[in-house]
Amino acid sequence: MQDAAINPSPPPIASSILERLLGATGDPEEVVKAGRSIAERILKPLRASLEDAASEPVPVEIEAVTVERTTELLVGAGPHDALTVGSSKASPDALSIRLEAKAIAVLVNALFGAEAEVGAGGIDRDLSPVEIEVANLVCRLLAVAYNGFNGPAQRLKLPLPSVASGDGLKEFAVRDGPGLRIDFAIGAEAERGLVSLFMPQRIVLQRGEEEAADPAVAEAQSAEWAARFNEEVMRARVTLQATLSVGRMTLGQVASFRRGQVIELSRTAPTETRLSARNKQLFVCEFGRLDENYTVRIRTPVAEGQDIIDGLVSP
User: Fold this and answer.
1) Alpha carbons 243 and 223: distance in angstroms, whole number
2) Residue 298 to residues 193, 274, 276: CA-CA distances in angstroms?
3) Domain 13-235, what architecture?
4) pLDDT tens-digit series, residues 185-218
């Protein structure tokens, strides 16, 4: 009796069932190669954004690109790490982000101008509101960098959900499946923390198929979409606001305000103001007068992320 031939690959039906249970998978080497390309595209704008926010370079390097299950986002998280999941039209978990507590400490030091000899230390407690806001800021910068080279269907929906940490991790849910992990090392060699990105392999494979189909067409479509989007944005109307600080008063004084009351400005009152639109600070300006009209003279642009930092440290 002749032996039956052994077929190493599962039949189509079995393959379909496995894909439904485990998710779409690709060749590990190809997935890692695609992941390194994604990491390199994110790295440059992320460095530039962090430098703008901190007013000095922040060391950021690609630490590793590996194939892992998407559940490692949660399984490997420390109790004081910060996690969020970004969705897109293509997937509800298109890009997940985890910041180690050490990375958050390094970023807080960098953004608030700590001296170089002052170590970031660790965080062995629940994150403070300032640390949560810094984590959210970095996640937003990562999402913007990611959106910069993806088509409309792959772009993350902004704003991202606020990060979860501490007790919030107990309610955090992650869908299991084959994934890609990208680790960025933040900080100098002596003190470094990891910022990790997790993507389902199906997203990586989908991006690869779209780019392989016709890169020129994909690039042209992305450029056309961006041009139309920019044109609509440029026609939009916004309300400009210039705010002047009049000094400090007690709550009792404020509570006694009445209609028609005049609040005097001292001779030393600050003339600097921030010009803003839609709650986004745009320029640092100076109040002045031209003939019978009050004026606002633009002095310098507000650095990206500076308005957030100013809000964190304001009394």
Assistant:
1) 37
2) 39, 9, 12
3) 3-Layer(aba) Sandwich (3.40)
4) 998 877 889 999 999 988 888 776 555 545 554 5
244: amino acid identity, one letter: L
Angle at the Cα of 288 from the Cα atoms of 287 and 293, rounded to 5 degrees: 115
Amino acid letter for position 246: V
Average pLDDT, the chain: 79
Closest by CA to 97, choosing from 82, 76, 111, 80, is 82
pLDDT (tens digit, 9 = 90+) per residue, 38-69? 999 999 999 999 988 887 888 999 999 999 99
- Please report which helix (H) or strand (E) contains residue 48, including its range: helix 28-54
Contact present, 35 and 41 (Cβ < 8 Å): no
C-beta of residue 186 within 8 angstroms of C-beta of residue 97: no
What's the token pair of residue 149?
Answer: 């080279």
List C-alpha distances in Å: 47 to 98, 156, 181: 18, 19, 19
- Alpha carbons 211 and 151: distance in angstroms, whole number: 10
Query: Is 209 in contact with 55 (CB distance < 8 Å)?
Result: no
| Pick from 78, 101, 142: nearest CA to 305 | 142
DSSP 8-state symbol, 80 = T
- Domain locations in the chain as residue ranges: 13-235, 240-251+268-313
CA distance 239 to 279: 10
Q: Are 177 and 77 in contact (CB under 8 A)?
A: no
What is the number of residues in the chain?
315
The answer to pTM > 0.90 is no
Cα–Cα distance measured from residue 280 to residue 48, given in angstroms and rounded to the nearest whole number? 20
Q: What is the 3-state secondary structure (H, E, C) of 101-113?
A: HHHHHHHHHHHCC
Cis check: omega of the bond before 45, within 30 degrees of 0:
no
In this predicted structure, what is the pLDDT of residue 1? Answer: 43
Listed residue (190, 177, 9) closest to 117, CA to CA: 190
d(CA 68, CA 243): 50
Q: What are phi and psi of 88, to 5 degrees?
A: -140, 180
